[in-house]
Design goal:
By secondary structure, this protein is mainly alpha-helical. It folds into two domains: about 1-60, YqgF/RNase H-like domain (Nucleotidyltransferase, domain 5), CATH 3.30.420.140; about 60-108. Helix content is about 65%, strand content about 10%. It is built from four helices and two strands. The protein has a two-stranded parallel sheet. Helix 3 packs across helix 4.
Length: about 110
């Protein structure tokens, strides 16, 4: 976990991220398991290091969405898992950003 936190801290500082959004791997019924616990631990580590908001965001179905996007685009190669993870991360971030935009509209 320390290496993951180190990479996130570096990227957050390098790209001046604000906030840091981390996918929370919930079970399909919405409950949390061991992976969610590890993610919360990572968020706690980051919270202690970075002076930024750390947002946990439900990542359920992000991999399925990413696989559908790749399938529809005919993208499949030796680095499929890396591409799948990157597209899933994009789906998580897009979902978070859409939520935030919707919240801002409601406030105005």
């Amino acid at each position: 976990m320390p290496k993951v936190a180190e990479k996130i801290v570096y990227a957050a500082r390098e790209y001046e991220a604000q906030p840091v959004v981390i996918g929370l791997p919930l079970k399909m019924d919405g409950s949390e398991g061991p992976r969610a616990e590890k993610t919360r631990k990572l968020a706690g580590i980051l919270h202690n290091i970075l002076p930024l908001p750390i947002e946990l965001w439900d990542e359920r179905s992000s991999t399925v969405s990413a696989a559908n996007i790749l399938s529809n685009n005919g993208t499949c190669d030796a680095k499929h898992n890396e591409v799948l993870d990157a597209v899933a991360a994009t789906a998580i971030l897009e979902s978070y950003m859409a939520f935030r935009a919707n919240q801002q509209k409601k406030q105005n």
